[in-house]
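Appendix B. Raw example, untouched.
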Amino acid sequence: MSEFDIPLFQFSRGEFVEADYQDPLLEDYRNNPLLEALPPIWDDHAVVKSLSSSPIFNPSERNLPVHLRMHCVQRISRDFFRPLSRHLELQQSLSRLIRDGYVGRNPLTPNYAFRARKDAYELIMKGTTNGYPVNTPTSAGFALVGISGIGKSSSLMRILQMYPQVILHRKYREQDMPAPYQIVWLKMDCPHDGSIRGLCLNFLLAVDSLVGTRYYKKNATKTPDELLPIMAQAAAVHCLGVLVIDEIQNLQEAKDDRAAQMLNFFVQLVNTIGLPVILVGTYKALPALNGEFRNARRNSGQGDATWHHFKKDDEWEWLLQGLWKYQWTDKKVDLTQEFIDVMFDESQGISDVAIKLFMLTQWRALDKDIEHITPELIRSVAKDRLILIKPALEALRSGKKKQIQMFADIYDSVSVDDYLDRIEAEQRQAERLEVIRTELGYNVSEQTVNELSAWLIDAGIEQSVALQSAKEVTKAHMHELDVVDLHKEVLKLALQKQRKVTSEAAVQRNKRTPKMLPTAPHDLRVIVTQGKKKKLPAYDSLKAAGYIKDPLEFIG
């Protein structure tokens, strides 16, 4: 039995989901089990919900001892993630890429399983990828490059994790599947020395850990030329949807012509089995990405993604608004324009630096028994704790190309095309930011308003008062809905409004109901009133009218 004939019981270490075939809603995606087993094609609202992540936080934790609050601050780096327009664009590119790659790779097409095994044997015996039967590539992939610390790898990993990594296929429409395991995505780092052999062995080890094969054990001693076709065949047999190679700038360290050889191999993966390849790295990787791989990916239609550092715009403020909720100092401070300016100046729009600086500032405040963070404290921390990256930040701050070129990880070559692309990207960014605000802001607010108003009505508050109070409290705490005791705040406001409404209603009732004066001649009030006009006491008036008799009349 070869490694291509894998019984289901061997699968033990990888996590997988059973295939649940759903209509993909698009005709070119139908009748392909690899596509029908994927999650639905999400819209931006669903992506925002899925990607968002918030640290655990409770305002009462500010009363904890300092040593415990120090640990609370650590949650920010672990759990804080706020989707931005670039993340929505990356998810859309990945979604199209995976599906486009599977269009031309249907395992139910005639002779699929036979060709996979026959070609594997021939290629391994030859020890070369030359002569590999060419399929028509439908998707080439793209490169994701950008400044170090901007969140390329972590963001891509979050998006990949929206998809199951391995799907188990048993039967599709009562038909046995030739390949039971579908590896939807695989992400790995380029070896630090650019070694092709190291890359291939890491790939085979990763596949083994996912589907229980023994590629690594059987091939650990083979040469790079022998490993490349095995890697290609493993990707084909296990229906790999997309291969992500991170830290691709390590190819710059490769000796001889290894960098060109590895990039050419990625092109062959695209051309032979239609496997999309995504290369991720810093600007240092740009020279290595020229040549054949660049030409190959031009036809992908996805376009390379270049992540610049943030500008001081609405999206930068949106990121800080989310971050600013999480303060464990004695007192919380609001996000002001001064804080926005200082955070940008000291981080130069690099999100990872900004997040770490925010954490370091809180730790400094807690350690020095400072009540709350200040712009001066942020600058002091940046000066003391960001020493290693200070030259790079200074280069970015200067805006001078020659200085920036000294730091390959942050170098950004500017061209007219880049400038035009950025204008178009800014327009898309504004549209996507509106979607994000709607999903994480207004929709959440509407849900909160409905929940609070219903709670108040159940507590006996009038409907109009309940709704207005819920709206005002939600709006006031828009950016801290998860850290404020909203029920307490809304009840306090509703009771104030209820008392005011009740008081005003009483006044209005008095105004609307004038005093009715008696008019009947025998009405005692009329008799007394007329007597007062004659300056008679009420007793005398009633006595004169015959309502009071002389007590002597009852004697005798």
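End of appendix B.
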